[in-house]
TrEMBL record:
KW Nucleotide-binding (keyword) present: yes
Gene3D superfamilies (UniProt xref): Leucine Dehydrogenase, chain A, domain 1, NAD(P)-binding Rossmann-like Domain
InterPro entries xref list: Aminoacid_DH-like_N_sf, Glu/Leu/Phe/Val/Trp_DH, Glu/Leu/Phe/Val/Trp_DH_C, Glu/Leu/Phe/Val/Trp_DH_dimer, Glu/Leu/Phe/Val_DH_AS, Glu_DH, NAD(P)-bd_dom_sf, NAD_bind_Glu_DH
Lineage: Bacteria, Candidatus Eiseniibacteriota
GO terms of biological process kind: L-glutamate catabolic process
UniProt site (Important for catalysis): 153
Organism, as annotated: Eiseniibacteriota bacterium
Protein name: Glutamate dehydrogenase
Signal peptide extent: none
Length: 422
């Protein structure tokens, strides 16, 4: 048992998984050792101590991280997550995935990520604001529209981004909306940004169904995680005629073979803070990743599909709405089963794509209507899907390896053209 536990710990290590995914693609590309090391390692990792006055009058010191993995193709880009289990290794892995995500969808950003070790559910709004402003102030030398552009992630939202805009702007003595993305519309946000990641999932699923000659209309879909990404993708797929047969979140899960009423479920979750108890379905008694469905959308956290449960996954298409939901060991099992996995760096890149649009609009001072944003997003996502699919068919590799190959080639090409400053 101890050996099994140690092996599972290795399998669940996000940084190790990110490096394994990179190495498999890099091996196939025969990258020179020097170039390989340059693009594999993070450019900069920063740890900050954040003293914050709590509402009860005590002073608490929080730990924050910001990792810039690459700025070769443009400013570092990546969200900030607030979670009690955030680690530097996790943030390093997420920053690397952002480099590849931006490259695979071909937008001019590098990869970055941030995190603060805290439990937002136990903090007041005032405490969260003070923590956010302290984090933004301590990292203001890193942040900037041309250097490092954060965004929301787990347990952060538009309000947190608005606080960062204000804090950064006070330090710069001018209003600078382009310092973060995922902002409220009133503070320089973009139409369509809130729904962008979920819409990107839909677009990838639609293209996958077309490639596999399987209709999306009537397909049975299970969604793990019913936050922004899960709820939007479920709603959009239901509008395309798919049946959302199961949904779960941290509170529990519900299912109905005939299809859940997604609109009613969204309303229920808004009122009850979870899917548990939803009267329009029966309680889910088995893990949702093992549910009988055609399409599985893991849209929660990392490491949901491992070597321990991958053989029980029944979905033909797995659309990774979350970052790192499938371990490399599970990937091999799914590949042998014939599952078509749309990897996270492609499938959930709709959010960063519209973040790029938001950044562009901020820089221009000219804002597009939602219809135009969605049209541009579709162009980018469909092109990226087919770039990856073509690489997959050419090299006879799965979509994840192909996505990493596409991304790595694009980063390497820029490095070779720019050279190394020394």
């Amino acid at each position: 048992m101890p050996a099994e536990g140690a092996n599972l710990q290795k399998e669940l290590n996000p940084l190790r998984n990110a490096e394994r995914q990179f190495d498999e693609a890099a091996d196939r590309l025969n990258l020179p050792p020097g170039i390989r090391e340059v693009i594999k390692r993070p450019r900069r990792a920063t740890i900050v101590s954040l003293p914050v006055n709590l509402d009860d009058g005590t002073l608490k010191v929080f730990t924050g991280y910001r990792v810039q993995h690459s700025i070769v193709r443009g400013p570092a880009k990546g969200g900030i997550r607030y979670h009690p289990d955030v680690t530097l290794e996790e943030v390093e892995a997420l920053a690397a995935w952002m480099t590849w995500k931006c490259a695979v969808v071909n937008i001019p950003f590098g990869g970055g990520k941030g995190g603060v070790v805290c439990d937002p559910s136990r903090m007041s709004k005032g405490e969260l604001e003070r923590l956010t402003r302290r984090y933004a102030a301590d990292l203001s030398d890193l942040f900037g529209p041309e250097s490092d552009v954060p965004a929301p992630d787990v347990n952060t939202n538009e309000q947190v981004m608005a606080w960062i805009v204000d804090t950064y702007s006070m330090h710069e003595r001018r209003t600078e909306y382009a310092v973060v993305t995922g902002k409220p519309l009133e503070v320089g946000g973009s139409a369509g940004r809130r729904e962008a990641t979920g819409r990107g999932v839909l677009l990838c699923v639609r293209e996958a169904c077309e490639h596999l000659k399987r209709p999306l209309a009537g397909a049975r879909v299970a969604v793990q995680g019913f936050g922004n990404v899960g709820s939007v993708s479920a709603d959009l797929m239901a509008k395309e005629g798919a049946k959302i047969v199961a949904v779960s979140d941290v509170s529990g899960g519900v299912h109905d073979p005939a299809g859940l009423d997604v609109k009613a479920l969204i309303t229920w979750v808004a009122d009850h803070r979870g899917v548990k108890g939803f009267p329009g379905g029966k309680p889910l008694t088995t893990p949702i990743v093992e549910h009988d469905c055609d399409i599985l959308v893991p849209a929660a956290l990392e490491n949901q599909i491992t070597h321990e449960n991958a053989d029980r996954v029944r979905a033909r298409i797995i659309a990774e709405g979350a970052n790192g939901p499938t371990t490399p060991d599970a990937d091999r099992i799914l590949r042998d089963k014939g599952a078509f996995v749309i990897p996270d760096i492609l499938c959930n890149s709709g959010g960063v794509t519209v973040s790029y649009f938001e950044w562009v609009q901020n820089r221009m001072g000219f804002y597009w209507p939602e219809r135009e944003v969605n049209q541009r997003l579709e162009q980018y996502m469909v092109q990226a899907f087919h770039d990856v699919l073509a690489k997959s068919l050419e090299h006879k590799v799965d979509m994840r390896v192909a996505a990493f190959m596409v991304a790595i080639e694009r980063v390497v090409k820029v490095i070779m053209l720019r050279g190394v400053y020394a």
